[in-house]
Amino acid sequence: MSISRRYALSLFAAVPVLAACGVGGSSSGSGGGKTVRIAYQNFADSTLLVKDRQTLEKALPDHTVKWTAFDSGASINTAFLGGSIDLAVIGSSPTAAGLCPPLSIPYQVIELLNVIGDSEALVVRKATGITKITELVGRKVAAPFSSTAHYSLLAALELAGVDAGQVTLVDLEPQNIQAAWQRGDIDAAYVWTPVLSVLQQDGVTLTDSAKLAAEGKPTLTFTVAGRDFAAANPDVIEAWLAATDDALKLIGTDPGTVAAAVSRQIGISTDDALSQLKQNIYLDHAEQRGPDYFGTPDQPGELAERLHDTAQFLRQQKKVDQVPDLATIRAALRVPGAGGA
Fold first, then answer.
1. Sorted alphabetically, which InterPro entries does this protein's record hold (predicted)?
2. Is 219 in contact with 148 (CB distance < 8 Å)?
3. Which of 154, 257, 272, 279 lies 20 to 30 Å from 266 when distance is taken between CA atoms?
4. Total structural domains in the chain?
């Protein structure tokens, strides 16, 4: 099942109904067991190996595991507000937005799935003749709003000295970006694979998220869990983290096996899946407890500061109303491998 932002908004409108039906921390399955509702996205990452192997289903035989594909982090945030998901794969920009008013979503960041590299990029149509970001003034540029790609697009414009108001920004989900590109409705787009790979066939890459990270604007992919769900279901969180940690390690030791799983899950060739996996940086949980990321409960790392900086940038761009203090952001981080800390 795939959920677009428009459909997710209908879920948000149904919040009272969902609450009345008991949808929240964990729902009951038809057999009286629990249902774990996972939001994932159709790009190459370790969680697709977990899904492909049904690792969570095997570890939690008394649970029903429901996987739902979402087009972007914005629609995932809306679904969290509607109480319809428990765990989600989501980027750092929508996570930062989710922690800020007006959303203020009560979820926790429980692990880092990747540091985004050139799997997200700003591409312009070759036919435009554009070769520099400054030449995008007056042009139509698409990105899924409130996504890591949107954050990176705004950062790229800022770094190039281009006011975002000088560019016509178009809010489109990845598949709609591909369609608009093929129709000639847009001049450029900041998007992620696999749509990015299609655009690059007749486009010119102006910058990517690896280059922006080097310039101080990094983006990341997380797993987030509803705070109440995580507190009430420590067995699920433990099983999920064990599965994803193994998958993260396997990307380093046997990427071909992970690529084969990605290929089966999102319908691309194994070679393309392997190429996309190589575009990001993967850290296992032990590495994530280093000072550059989560740190430890006693010695917090820099991840909270990075999320806080992202939130500050979103505030400057008028994408959020206000930014919580650093302590509030830090409290939303749950160090993987440190229990409920």
1. ABC_Gly_betaine_transp_sub-bd, Solute-binding_3/MltF_N
2. yes
3. 154
4. 2
Give pLDDT tens digits along the chain (341 positions).
444 443 343 333 434 333 333 334 455 544 457 999 999 999 999 999 999 999 999 999 999 999 999 999 999 999 999 999 999 999 999 999 999 999 999 999 999 999 999 999 999 999 999 999 999 999 999 999 989 999 999 999 999 999 999 999 999 999 999 999 999 999 999 999 999 999 999 999 999 999 999 998 999 999 999 999 999 999 999 999 999 999 999 999 999 999 999 999 999 999 999 999 999 999 999 999 999 999 999 999 999 999 999 999 999 989 999 999 999 999 999 999 876 54
Measured distance CA(178)–CA(166) in Å, rounded: 23
DSSP conformational letter for 317 = T
Tell me the two tokens of residue 159: 């770094």
The whole-model pTM stands at 0.85
What secondary structure letter does DSSP report for 333? B
Strand partners for 35: 27, 64
Domain range for 154: 120-214
Between CA 124 and CA 240, with CA 151 as vertex, the angle to 5 degrees is 115
CATH number at residue 190: 3.40.190.10
The DSSP code for 84 is -
**In the listed set 214, 237, 255, which residue is the last one of a domain according to the structure?**
214
Q: Phi then psi for 129, rounded to 5 degrees?
A: 75, 5
- Secondary element (H or E) of residue 59: helix 55-59
Q: What is the 3-state secondary structure (H, E, C) of 146-161?
A: CCHHHHHHHHHHHHCC
Q: Which of 85, 86, 106, 103 is nearest to 94 (CA)?
A: 103
Task: Give the whole-angstrom CA distance, residue 91 versus residue 222.
Answer: 6
Indicate the SS3 state at residue 186.
Answer: coil
CA 305 to chain centre: 18
Confirm whether 339 is domain-assigned: no
